[in-house]
Specification:
By secondary structure, the chain is mostly helical. The chain is 62% helix and 9% strand. It folds into 2 domains: 1-63; 108-188, Membrane-bound Lytic Murein Transglycosylase D, Chain A, CATH 3.10.350.10. The chain is elongated and about 130 Å long.
């Protein structure tokens, strides 16, 4: 009889443990079902947002495509920019010719290098070491076969004491190994 009671006790304990395990499993399943439902709801919200954005893009395309006035304005603006650029090029050529005349009048240096331009006061927005102010110096357009050393040498021959370090400091972002023809660089005037 004791054996039967022990077996009944073990059987009831096992059934209770199995029932508890089933309850825990059911809770996990319910939790996962809730998370899946949240993900599905979030996906539906995203789909609605995407649809709204697609409609908005389509409306913007319709508005931009139907506006021939805006296209005409853009063409007119492009033409004006090209005209200004042509005038800028003509002014640049005139300035270079005047610089050559000044160099010849002042006596050339025999180095074959064009003489440096005359001193000017240049705003230092991004091309000099003292932001926001003005600095005396020279604006120089890089010529073919120029290096920073040859530019410094030409200025020194004209009596302007400048170093490559000063030029690099006055022109942040200037790469001395890749100077481009026509590139403007600022040559700081020596302090008096």
């Amino acid at each position: 009889m004791k054996r039967i009671l022990v077996w009944l006790f073990i059987l009831s304990f096992s059934l209770a443990a199995a029932r508890a395990q089933d309850d825990a499993t059911q809770q996990q399943i319910n939790k996962l079902n809730g998370q899946v439902q949240d993900l599905l709801d979030a996906q539906a919200v995203q789909a609605k947002r995407i649809d709204a954005l697609e409609k908005e893009i389509a409306e913007l395309r319709d508005k931009s495509g139907g506006s021939s006035v805006a296209q005409g304005d853009l063409q007119k603006l492009a033409d004006q920019v090209q005209e200004i650029d042509k005038k800028r090029q003509a002014d640049r050529e005139l300035i270079l010719k005047e610089i050559e005349k000044l160099g010849k009048a002042g006596g050339s240096s025999g180095s074959g290098h064009k003489s440096p331009p005359t001193a000017t006061t240049t705003p230092t927005a991004s091309s000099s070491a003292s932001p926001g102010g003005k600095e005396n110096g020279y604006e120089y357009a890089v010529q073919r076969n120029d290096t920073l050393s040859t530019i410094v040498k030409a200025y020194r021959e004209q009596g302007i004491k400048v170093t490559t370090d000063q030029i690099l400091k006055a022109n942040p972002g200037l790469n001395p190994n890749s100077l481009k023809v026509g590139q403007k660089i600022f040559i700081p005037a020596p302090a008096k």
